Amino acid sequence: xxxxxxxxxxxxxxxxxxxxxxxxxxxxxxxxxxxxxxxxxxxxxxxxxxxxxxxxxxxxxxxxxxxxxxxxxxxxxxxxxxxxxxxxxxxxxxxxxxxxxxxxxxxxxxxxxxxxxxxxxxxxxxxxxxxxxxxxxxxxxxxxxxxxxxxxxxxxxxxxxxxxxxxxxxxxxxxxxxxxxxxxxxxxxxxxxxxxxxxxxxxxxxxxxxxxxxxxxxxxxxxxxxxxxxxxxxxxxxxxxxxxxxxxxxxxxxxxxxxxxxxxxxxxxxxxxxxxxxxxxxxxxxxxxxxxxxxxxxxxxxxxxxxxxxxxxxxxxxxxxxxxxxxxxxxxxxxxxxxxxxxxxxxxxxxxxxxx
Amino acid sequence: xxxxxxxxxxxxxxxxxxxxxxxxxxxxxxxxxxxxxxxxxxxxxxxxxxxxxxxxxxxxxxxxxxxxxxxxxxxxxxxxxxxxxxxxxxxxxxxxxxxxxxxxxxxxxxxxxxxxxxxxxxxxxxxxxxxxxxxxxxxxxxxxxxxxxxxxxxxxxxxxxxxxxxxxxxxxxxxxxxxxxxxxxxxxxxxxxxxxxxxxxxxxxxxxxxxxxxxxxxxxxxxxxxxxxxxxxxxxxxxxxxxxxxxxxxxxxxxxxxxxxxxxxxxxxxxxxxxxxxxxxxxxxxxxxxxxxxxxxxxxxxxxxxxxxxxxxxxxxxxxxxxxxxxxxxxxxxxxxxxxxxxxxxxxxxxxxxxx
Amino acid sequence: xxxxxxxxxxxxxxxxxxxxxxxxxxxxxxxxxxxxxxxxxxxxxxxxxxxxxxxxxxxxxxxxxxxxxxxxxxxxxxxxxxxxxxxxxxxxxxxxxxxxxxxxxxxxxxxxxxxxxxxxxxxxxxxxxxxxxxxxxxxxxxxxxxxxxxxxxxxxxxxxxxxxxxxxxxxxxxxxxxxxxxxxxxxxxxxxxxxxxxxxxxxxxxxxxxxxxxxxxxxxxxxxxxxxxxxxxxxxxxxxxxxxxxxxxxxxxxxxxxxxxxxxxxxxxxxxxxxxxxxxxxxxxxxxxxxxxxxxxxxxxxxxxxxxxxxxxxxxxxxxxxxxxxxxxxxxxxxxxxxxxxxxxxxxxxxxxxxx
Lengths: 356, 356, 356
Fold this sequence. Notes:
Three copies of one chain form a homotrimer. Chain A has 356 residues and is α+β, with helices and mostly antiparallel strands. In chain A, helix 2 crosses helix 12 (334-347). The N and C termini of chain A lie close together (10 Å). Chain A folds into three domains: 4-111, Rossmann fold (3-Layer(aba) Sandwich), CATH 3.40.50.20; 121-137 and 192-229 and 252-328, D-amino Acid Aminotransferase, Chain A, domain 1 (2-Layer Sandwich); 143-189, Dna Ligase, domain 1, CATH 3.30.1490. In chain A, the strands form three sheets. In chain A, strands 8, 9, 10, 11, 13 and 14 form a six-stranded antiparallel β-sheet that branches. In chain A, a hairpin with an 8-residue loop joins strand 5 (152-156) and strand 6 (165-168). In chain A, 29% of the residues lie in helices and 24% in strands. The first copy, chain A, has twelve helices and 14 strands. Chain A is globular. Chains in contact: A-B, A-C, B-C. Chains A and B meet through strand 8, strand 9, strand 10, strand 12 and helix 11 of A and helix 2, strand 10 and strand 11 of B.
């Protein structure tokens, strides 16, 4: 991982009046660019092969400039050019995934947030250590498939975007479904409604919901829309469909807005607070937007099945605010909130605390 | 129930410039406080045990003051203190439920709306009388379980928050599922999509959709998100799941936004209109926000399965307006609409018509 | 079909300062009227029998005037009166359906958009020719029921509003479900999540996402909410329900908002672009709002199962903007976008290009 000292040296060479917010043209880039513009920043979109045409359709989100590379790795080799443009990078899911977490950690350019989070969220074991030690309930792991005594989710290692999962209700199901040539883990299937909670932690903000350092915000929430699991019931019972070799899959295609019962908000904040406090102890803090991916069962208990240590695509719903962020500042998006944090960091001389 | 005369005496002692909107810190309190602030009121949050921290995260909704009580009953015993603060209480689902409808009716403080509605909605028999005499179709009641000839919903008396329901498709199902030690009723299961319609009736507003007295508004609509019934299909057929002792439950965890086919709006207004007109005849009128909880079948017929005579949590989606309320006044929430009604009532010298 | 020359003659007689936007009071009329008002137009609502009362509840959407006819055909016979009011008609789904596509084409009044699209979307065969020749994947047609080797959707000809569909998983299902006295077609059932994409094509706009002529916009998207298919799973497996003679139906009752994975947007625009370009070649162009009704499978491939060549009811969600249109101009609806196009057309002397 590139050292903080090195990054700070790059940042020291920047023209503070020409800071440019940059990210890869995908995932949540529309709101990142739109939000940066609202806060008065220049914007730069990193594109592979050629500048995507569809930004032309969104004048308020189109970056001021495209930076076209041949392949993602070129972002590292051409970092000098980007540094000359006073670029601060905003990580998002696709940016990190396409480049790879290791390579992302090596980019010698100022990046919003703490890159140390990458390590903690990319490995399921230490992610679990972090979350459970912060007091989050997680679905139980089942070591031995013969112990399957309730519905489980079998996930192959490195499963991307929702393929490579299957549900088994007992050992027989497991045996019929499993591909033993791949690594997998077996997780209790928690039955309940899903809430993907979009938080924002700023170590430099001083008023609001206070943590040991800085403040926590709730920007919104969503539910992922997954093909084909969210529509398969229309065809009939899965038990029947299996005979036709039709199986459920879990590929995210979009997001649906929702709000949570207000009486659950204290618990929502308690979870967010503890996860951030624990991150401060473990690796200096998860900075900026993050998401707890939760299930609420019928005893109104939360189970966290994953954490994303950066902006998630569900925030794309809230490009003009959400029922939660509108109570902070009407119309603010997570993309804009990131830009605001950078603007405040620059104003207060505290960029070092939010950039790595 | 506290008498109207007594309430009016309390209200007469208030400083009209210092009216404070108060409610219990739960359910829909964020929008009630935020809406009251937008209309220029002071706000007070009644909290049990201690002031909840999460309001710090929502600066536009945080009440000016918390009033901490040990237990809900203290709201009655400490009403004198609240009266000195010129408090008008806003009822919501949790407020009424926690305190109990009877005790709520006894609070010797000015309360928005007509407390007589509590009696009419807390008893399923007279609720049914009200709604059917207003022309609403409701799911049929089945007296004798042996007459179950189609899917039914069996509800235990006093079932709260969605537990204590089950679906039976025939008498056999019923016999297997029923706990005969509890009281229950059996209701036809209406198959169709659900629309929770958020209305607002103001007896003092004169322009708009006119009733015999005052006007009716449509503020928005939602669908409740219920654990685990809204996710259970992913595990397979319920018939299969029963063998694993996994049963559906109906606990509300949140709300999802939607709009209804525009050609159904005349019927939506007709239902709201008739229910209000009938309430005026029966108990002097259901004032302020209310919700008809409906199912639309594939003949596009509405069935009303419940009424809530006050603000419902589904309005939390519309804290910055809805596709319906935006056509009345952009950005107005039900919480703000309540505050507006109180402000107008004060301005017109008509508080007596909307307070009880 | 009334000739363009005739329409242009009518339009030439209009007072350009008194243009009145008119449509039938249903479907998406609230946003059409509200949008027209925002752009400074007079509005007129065509109603059958009597003026609907519910518009009184929406002061920002209530038309300036109602034009009450006895039956839809009177719109044609009384066209002279409407011409005197300088009326430009906005077509929507109910308007065209109630009047019939053929009669709609004959109305001797200026109508927004290109009426030639009616012919291309009302016949499934030429609709398929248009879409597939534009490069859209569509569900395969199965000619012979004995070839059913996967789930299919059987649609009776002229099925309206979602009745008259059924799902068959094999030939046996088909035989049990089919009514051979009716005409039907058999379509592959594509399993995946549904995105109804709301586009806007203006031949007279010059900046933005450019086509061979004019520009393409993405105003929003939705998912249709259908009774009873979207709730039937709660009762148990369809296989079981059939024994009780409970069958799925597909009647649209409303719409749910959502956003799509940002990485799918290039494909969304590519589809919209090709469909418009092809429409220009085939019949002079589909002008104004249109909707591609798509399914995304778990390989992230789009299937288009239908096109609507005018405003769809799903845009009713976005009466105050959507996460997409807000990046064009905050708060703009499709209804307002139509009015804007007419205003721009008038300003630029190009009404002829968007009116027929």
